[in-house]
Design a protein that fits this description.
By secondary structure, this protein is an alpha/beta fold. The protein contains 21 helices and 12 strands. It is about 60% helix and about 10% strand. Helix 13 packs parallel to helix 15. It is elongated and about 105 Å long.
């Protein structure tokens, strides 16, 4: 339905108003009339007029006074005014009209053609203004929607992992500054893989959506709830100590235990395990420590049979209530030192492994491609920084990449360099490599996180990868990131007798595989880095075209 445009005619004589109405009346136009300045000003506060046709000479308040009052009001100061008068054509008189804000000045008797043409100009301007405002509102609405999509998980509607990390850092900084308390839950659906395997991923998605709603219904508006990844959820409770957090955690665990998921003929109960940590009780040095504490508590809940709530460092708390400030500070310092020792141990182990492999492969003339490995590390660093991942995660990803290359040499993986499709027996062998890499790293307990990345680095975003065929966010972020970076570096570096792809071919490959082999969000970030850091010699327009193509 077309919106009509409002105009206002002001004259102290009824017959003059009727004459003006007769000239201007047209479809799509609402004509308002006023016999005095006061009435006109009242109407202007109620309506949005495209133009006001104002008689100069009126009793009580003349047109000049009306115009001056209009210009003093935010609501009416920009309404165009056309003065109409039969009183004087004196230049000083006309100048006064323009000085008070008139955009035009017409003399009686009016020429209908001239009057209509001048009014139509302002009607057109008003239509353009309204269209522009409508477009602006539409763009603002779209921007709000895009912002919402960028910070929320598409399946559950909860905050996504990246936005949650931003909120966590903010809340942690606030609690340190204000000496308040802060509790954190890491929540995991028990045996969720069995749900997918038995009932299918559609029912699994339904369970995740309903579980997210159960969480929403249980928390306060000030609490921060997110899908952390796969079937894991994170809950941040500002101004909440451990005691209050435990009450809520147990209440929610029981609620989850009693809930029955029913959809399309399937019916299933799915319990949840919860790990809890809090700021004042556990004294985390960083926001990442708080997450790690709750994660360790969750691991214990699952190891002890699932469907239960566990507190980080529960044994110490049971023995002595809570740690004193001096004990907590001393423990925190010891943990930092031990963590540094562990990191050094990992690095030394990888270095020793590299030396061993160099010796074993020297006779065959095989060696590590140092330039390619270095580029992989650099791109992993750039991507991790862009995603806002903690430094510890970056180190884990880079170690996993080094272990991948070293152990592949140890396993003598020739299929990685072969041109063309693999033979049947070679394909079977390639499928076994993630399991073999996991098996080798399992000899070193210190590489538990790296082992997860290596196990799943051949999974694909569309669920067609191996060894488990996990889709999308169910694949650990480290595996998705390494898979993309490793493939990209392999594309642009020569592999034995196999030449590198040209920059254009590499971009085409990334564009084609976004959403299939690779996480499209990660591809989007990688394309931005390629443009910003000039990783490939390509015009930025070509990279933008690729981004638009797979973002449709």
């Amino acid at each position: 339905m077309e919106t009509k445009t409002d105009i206002l005619l002001v004259d102290d004589k009824e017959e003059n108003l009727l004459a003006l109405q007769a000239i201007l009346e047209a479809p799509g136009l609402n004509i308002f009339t006023a016999l005095s300045g006061n009435t006109a000003l009242g109407l202007m506060l109620e309506h949005d007029f495209a133009v006001v046709i104002l008689d100069v000479r009126m009793p009580g308040m003349d047109g000049f006074e009306v115009a001056e009052l209009m210009r003093k009001s935010e609501k009416t100061k920009f309404i165009p005014i056309i003065f109409v008068t039969a009183f004087s054509k004196d230049e000083g008189y006309i100048f006064k009209g323009y000085e008070t804000g008139a955009v035009d000045y017409l003399f009686k008797p009016l020429d209908p053609v001239i009057l209509k043409s001048k009014v139509n100009i302002f009607l057109e301007l008003d239509r353009n203004k309204k269209e522009l405002e409508q477009s602006k509102r539409k763009i603002e609405k779209q921007n709000e929607r895009l912002k919402e999509l960028s910070i929320t998980d598409g399946l559950t509607g909860l905050y996504n992992h990246r936005h949650f990390q931003d909120m966590l850092k903010r809340e942690f900084a606030l609690v340190r500054r204000n000496s308040a308390d802060l509790s954190f839950f890491m929540i995991d659906l028990d045996y969720f893989k069995d749900v997918n395997d038995t009932f299918g991923h559609t029912f699994g998605d339904f369970v995740l959506q309903r579980f997210a709603q159960l969480l929403k219904d249980a928390v306060r508006e000030t609490d921060i709830l997110a899908r952390y990844g796969g079937e894991e959820f994170a809950l941040l409770l500002p101004h909440t100590g451990l005691e209050g957090a435990m009450v809520l955690a147990e209440k929610f665990r029981k609620k989850a235990e009693e809930f029955v998921y029913e959809n399309e003929g399937h019916s299933k109960r799915v319990t949840a395990s919860v790990g809890v940590a809090s700021y004042r009780t556990h004294h985390p040095a960083t926001a990442s420590d708080l997450v790690n504490f709750a994660d360790q508590a969750l691991y214990r809940a699952k190891a002890e049979g699932r469907n239960q709530v566990r507190i980080y460092n529960e044994e110490a708390l049971n023995r002595s209530g809570t740690l004193s400030s001096s004990q907590a500070g001393h423990l925190s310092e010891l943990k930092k030192k031990l963590k540094k020792i562990l990191e050094n141990t990992k690095e030394n182990t990888v270095t020793s492994l590299e030396l061993l492999i160099r010796q074993l492969n020297s006779d065959q003339g095989q060696d590590l491609n140092q330039a390619q490995n270095q580029l992989t590390m650099e791109v992993l660093d750039l991507m991790s920084d862009r995603l806002g991942l903690p430094r510890s995660h970056q180190q884990t990803f880079k170690r996993a990449a080094r272990l991948h290359d070293l152990l592949n040499l140890l396993l003598d993986d020739e299929t990685a360099l072969k041109e063309g499709p693999l033979e049947k027996d070679e394909n079977t062998e390639a499928l076994d490599y993630p399991i073999m890499l996991e098996e080798l790293t399992s000899m070193f307990d210190i590489f538990s996180r790296e082992r997860v990345i290596l196990r799943y680095h051949h999974e694909k975003y569309d669920g067609t990868g191996y060894p488990e065929g996990l889709p999308g966010d169910l694949v650990p972020i480290g595996s998705r990131l390494f898979s993309l970076v490793d493939a990209f570096v392999t594309m642009i570096c020569p592999q034995g007798r196999k030449p590198a792809l040209t920059p254009a071919q590499a971009i085409d490959k990334l564009e084609k595989e976004a959403g299939r082999q690779f996480d499209p969000l990660l591809v989007n970030h990688l394309l931005d880095l390629i443009r910003e850091k000039k990783l490939l010699d390509l015009p930025k327009e070509r990279i933008q075209a690729a981004k638009k193509q797979f973002s449709k």
